[in-house]
Amino acid sequence: MKKTKGTKATRARKQPVPPNVRTGLVPRALERAIMDNLYYVQGRVPRTATRNDWYMAVAYTVRDRVLHRWMQTIETYMGSKDKSVSYLSAEFLIGPQLGSNLISLGIYDEVRQAVARLGQNLDELLDQEEEPGLGNGGLGRLAACFVESLATLEILGVGYGIRYEFGIFDQEIRDGWQVEVTDKWLRLGNPWEVPRPEITFVINFGGHTEHFVDHEGRYRVYWIPSRSVRGVACDIAVPGYRVNTVNLLRLWKAEATESFDLGAFNVGDYYGAVDSKVSSENITKVLYPNDEPIQGKRLRLEQQYFFVSCSLQDMIRVHLRRGHDLKDFHEAYAIQLNDTHPSIAVAEMMRLLVDEYSMDWDAAWDITQNTFAYTNHTLLPEALEKWPLPLFAELLPRHLEIILEINRRFLDEVRANGMADDGRIARLSLIDESGERFVRMANLASVGSHAINGVAALHTELLKQDVMRDFYEVYPKKFLNVTNGVTPRRWLVLSNPLLAELITRKIGDLWIRNMERHIKKIERYADDEDFQNDWRRIKHENKVRLASVIDQRTGVEVDPDSLFDIQVKRIHEYKRQHLNVLHVVTLYNRIKKNPQSHVVPRTVIFAGKAAPSYHTAKLVIKLINSVADVINNDADVAGRLKVVFLPDFNVKNAHAIYPAADLSEQISTAGKEASGTGNMKFAMNGALTIGTLDGANIEIREAVGEENFFLFGLTAEEVKRVKSEGYYPMQYAESNDELREVISLLAGGFFSRGDPNLFKPLVDSLLWQDEYLLFADYRSYIECQERIDKAYRDQEKWTKMSILNVARMGTFSSDRSIREYAEKIWDVKKVKITV
Ligand code: F58
Questions:
Q1: Is the CB of 99 inside a 6 Å radius of any atom of ligand 1?
Q2: How far does residue 472's CA lie from ligand 1's centre (Å)?
Q3: Alpha carbon distances (Å) from 241 to 82, 86, 513, 716, 745
Q4: Which pLDDT tens digit goes with each residue over 107-134?
Q5: Which of its termini does the chain have fewer beta carbons within 10 Å around, N or C?
């Protein structure tokens, strides 16, 4: 017999090891994996593959690598006693996933190479991704930054939310007006979600309760619901930056329960069964596109209870599976309530512990209070969520009983502590009885939590002084501040790669994982000529990139050499986009009157969605577009002033916007914006801010230095005083020639083809009420814009200010926010995951 060379083992060793198709990170392995997924998942060969097929193949390839780490995270967690965080939020505005996952895994260049070898372009594939618009604005985006930061800090956590089939509407602009188009983000499939049909809970609604004494003599309550739906988990993995921790976004989808379907089917009511299936699924059909709560919408309350109950049942399931006792629940979980939308969780936790697991009320209440913490995001009293009592009673009869019991005990305690006067009791009560009766969700969240936080220093102070004063007096120790932050991975590394590379070239890349500590090192290059030149060149390139987006989307050509003055956020009167418009028209008038005057050429850019039923906000969009129409077509101001409304502001578009800004408009009426987070994204990308002393602007200004920030306007205190002394906006218009002129153009139909009626509601409301004090701040705003005009002429100085802004923004990384939550509220530590 012929002798074979070597043993089987040595032969295997000598052969090149095939790259692991599921986990390999080198370009060759990635290339093979992409081909594999194209063939076996998409069912395509390169000849027939569409761009979406290639995108999906790449996305699945990346997902495999994330899942590998995820499994290890779950392994470690299940075998440990570590406490984890559950972040409950009705919104997670996560944005496109491919780019951020590539950055977290550290395989951006490798995938680009692999894709190129397959004849594809990574940028085009990134562009192909439809973003999950599962949020309205700042609150939803904050939740997304937080889940990413949790993973990066290696803190175990789950973001619990709702898998809306239709996210925030797409905005189109027709004839200057906003038109809402349904967002069909799931049309081409979502490669990032892992459906978990086996993780499912039944959620009940309606019916009545029965009270009885059980065989052990205990007082018990049965809830006999009239309707139930099933919640099914859909998971999205969220990897931390260059760590093995992968956290989870668990979004719940509503389905009909089998028994319910069959019940109707058995009695021969086929269509009835189908109807009820459809109505069950409606619960997670659509995100409410309002940026203020809409009162009395039954479906919204159903959504809230649905996702909260699924999430709590899931936590209890995992807790028991880990072999823990329910009485230790608060040692295993810290639950953060992102605003009041999930605050029904307080009552649901009590119901689960007391009714389902037969725990004593007092023990259950202890666990509940020790587990929950509540973040408030608003200072507008009208935005505090409340539900009509009859609706509550009908939909959640048992929860209403529990809330009334919590309230009775709470108010007794307040009285016992001698803190009761009748006014205060009425204000503290979980039930608003001043007219039609309502359940006050902020009061429920506050009583049921051990910590209540605002999202910027001023906001927390105003909560204590005004909005939640009575609660502060009863529970001073519960209140604390955690200023918001944003993730530098998405908002700098992914969206501004040129600037990120320049910074890394100078100071290394540690700033990406620890911005607080390291980004300040670029301060020493603030005066360096070469560095300044690079800095300016990059800003210019980013402006060229945005100019091309603007051209594609609006057909307006803008000059990248002009000052890019940008305001992007939801359209709201308190955010004062129309104050910006007053400045634009003032500039226009000045140029028209004095054609020789030297002004720095400006491009004023707006973007943002208005709530579909918020007529004034929609009129502001029309105003911006109408003013843009006149100005952009007037040869007298050509080359000096342009105005753009960029439609459909979302996470993806934002990537191109923040890096291109010279000037960031943060001009809300002082005392109205809880924090703002766009202000942070702009400053992190080297824009200088024009802003009021509102929300986190105050802390940004302190951090970057007052000489590097353009401040204007009344303070929150002055706003209060002006209002209390009697505010007459008309007087301001009468005593300021330029303001008067601007208003008369608007009122006279100059921007509405001679129609004086179009903007009349806006003009009248400014002249007669001006609730947000645009006129009171007008002069100061215009003068501040003049200072900006001057400052921009000195490009060295401007560049230095820009560098210093970025260098000093480290504290506004969401990693810092999460560290504070972890230490001050959650008492959680990092857990190393090894793969
Ligand atoms: C925002 N709120 C605040 N609410 O306005 C902003 O100042 C803050 O920076 C941000 O939260 C994060 O803390 C906000 O975005 C909503 O969109 C809610 C959506 C659901 C209905 C109620 C408002």
A1: no
A2: 22
A3: 21, 20, 7, 38, 52
A4: 999 999 999 999 999 999 999 999 999 9
A5: N
β 641-645/84-88 pair status: unpaired
Which H or E run includes 202? strand 193-205
CA gap 391, 375 in Å, rounded: 25
- Shortest-distance Cα residue to atom 17 of ligand 1: 291
- Cα 686 from Cα 526, distance rounded (Å): 12
Numbers of helices and strands, H then E, in the chain: 36, 22
Residues tagged active-site: 377, 569-570, 575, 677, 681
- 634 in Cβ contact with 589 (< 8 Å): no
Q: Is residue 136 lining ligand 1, measured as CB closer than 6 Å?
A: yes
Q: Which residues contact 101 (CB under 8 A, 6 or more apart)?
A: 62, 63, 66, 239
Q: What is the tens place of the pLDDT at every residue in 702-725?
A: 999 999 999 999 999 999 999 999
User: Can you list the alpha helix ranges (DSSP code H) found in 633-712?
Assistant: 651-657, 678-684, 697-704
Q: Which ligand 1 atom sits nearest the alpha carbon of residue 385?
A: 22
Q: What is the pTM of this model?
A: 0.96
Minimum CA distance residue for ligand 1 atom 20: 291
Report the relative pairing of strands 372-375 and 333-338 from DSSP bridges. parallel
Q: What is the DSSP letter of 139?
A: H
Distance from the alpha carbon of residue 697 to the mean position of ligand 1, in angstroms: 16
Looking from the CA of 558 toward its CB, the CA atoms found within 13 Å total 33
- 676 touches ligand 1 (CB under 6 Å): yes
Kind plus residue range of the DSSP H or E element containing 75? helix 51-78
Q: How many CB atoms lie within 10 A of CB 165?
A: 18
Q: What is the pLDDT of residues 238-289, one digit of tens each?
A: 999 999 999 999 999 999 986 655 565 566 677 777 777 778 899 999 999 9
pLDDT of 818 > 50? The answer is yes
CA distance 758 to 749: 8
> Are 621 and 178 spatial neighbours (Cβ–Cβ below 8 Å)?
yes
Which of 146, 291, 379, 570 should be mutated for ligand 1, with most atoms under 8 A from CB?
291
Name the helix (H) or strand (E) containing 731: helix 729-734
Q: How far is the CA of 438 from the centre of ligand 1 (A)?
A: 22
Q: How far apart are CA 516 and CA 514, in angstroms?
A: 6
Residue 743 phi/psi, 5-degree rounding, is -65, -35
Structure tokens at 817: 């926010």
Ligand 1: which residue has its CA nearest to atom 12? 139
453 lines ligand 1 (CB under 6 A): no
Nearest 10 degrees: CA dihedral of 306, 312, 316, 317? 40
Judge if the beta carbon of residue 293 lies within 6 A of ligand 1: yes
Whether residue 677 has its Cβ less than 6 Å from ligand 1: yes
CA distance 350 to 336: 16
Task: Give the per-residue pLDDT at 274.
Answer: 72
- Whole-Å CA distances, 517 to 106, 491, 520: 21, 18, 7
d(CA 313, CA 337): 16
* Position 9 confidence tier, pLDDT thresholds 50, 70, 90: very low
Q: State which H helix or E strand residue 250 sits in.
A: strand 246-256
State how far the Cα of 208 lies from the Cα of 204, in Å rounded to an integer.
11
Q: How far is the CA of 482 from the centre of ligand 1 (A)?
A: 15
**Residue 135 alpha carbon to ligand 1 centre in Å:** 10
Give nearest CA residue, ligand 1 atom 14: 139
